[in-house]
Amino acid sequence: RREPLALINLKKKNETGEEELASRLDHCKAKATRHIFLIRHSQYNLDGRADKDRTLTPLGREQAELTGRRLASLGLKFDQIIHSSMTRATETTEIISKHLPGVKKISTDLLREGAPIEPDPPVSHWKPEAVQYYEDGARIEAAFRNFIHRADAKQEEDSYEIFVCHANVIRYIVCRALQFPPEGWLRLSLNNGSITHLVIRPNGRVALRTLGDTGFMPPDKITRT
């Protein structure tokens, strides 16, 4: 609902002339491009029973350092880092942010890991309870609608934003953003600390520049756990 026509009061639209309508539509059009960098958290302790125990491993901390250096090397003026409130995403963010001084960090529960939608085809090794899809799916869809959209009409310059979250969330967002069947999200695979780059143009069109890039890491540092 970010098309210019969707932002105009329909009753008033019918009362105005064509010239005034064209002017109002132009006022509602986005002018800037949004660059979305989706970062999967680094390797973490799988044996932790509670979220607070699922901290990054020593290798995971190395991966986050490499990801932070890579983002810094791009030479972009990042506007913010929005991250999942889960421990592994928060720790990954803290390490990355050391390489991007001055970039504000925002924590959100919307980006927490979960089961976005029942995958098609199904897999035998991962079968959460059906209720989890309803609980997590609504939240992750809300994250997509809240964060992945064209720029606001008031935004004058292109923006560069980092989102540090989880594989399931990123895979679902990519499918939704590209208007692919979201049930195919599990067919995508993402390494720890990987960078996925989405571009959202002023007209709402979305392009995928990179998916799960870890080419900046030595082969012995790459994991998918």
UniProtKB/TrEMBL annotation:
InterPro entries: His_Pase_superF_clade-1, His_PPase_superfam, Mito_Ser/Thr_phosphatase. GO terms for cellular component: mitochondrial outer membrane. Pfam families: His_Phos_1. Its EC number is 3.1.3.16. SUPFAM superfamilies: Phosphoglycerate mutase-like. SMART domains: PGAM. It is found in: Mitochondrion outer membrane. One of its GO terms (molecular function) is protein serine/threonine phosphatase activity. Keywords: Hydrolase, Membrane, Mitochondrion, Mitochondrion outer membrane, Necrosis. GO terms for biological process: positive regulation of mitochondrial fission; programmed cell death. It is an enzyme of class 3 (hydrolase). It catalyses: O-phospho-L-seryl-[protein] + H2O = L-seryl-[protein] + phosphate; O-phospho-L-threonyl-[protein] + H2O = L-threonyl-[protein] + phosphate. Its main location: mitochondrion. Belongs to the phosphoglycerate mutase family. BPG-dependent PGAM subfamily. This is Serine/threonine-protein phosphatase PGAM5, mitochondrial. It comes from Callaeas wilsoni (North Island kokako).
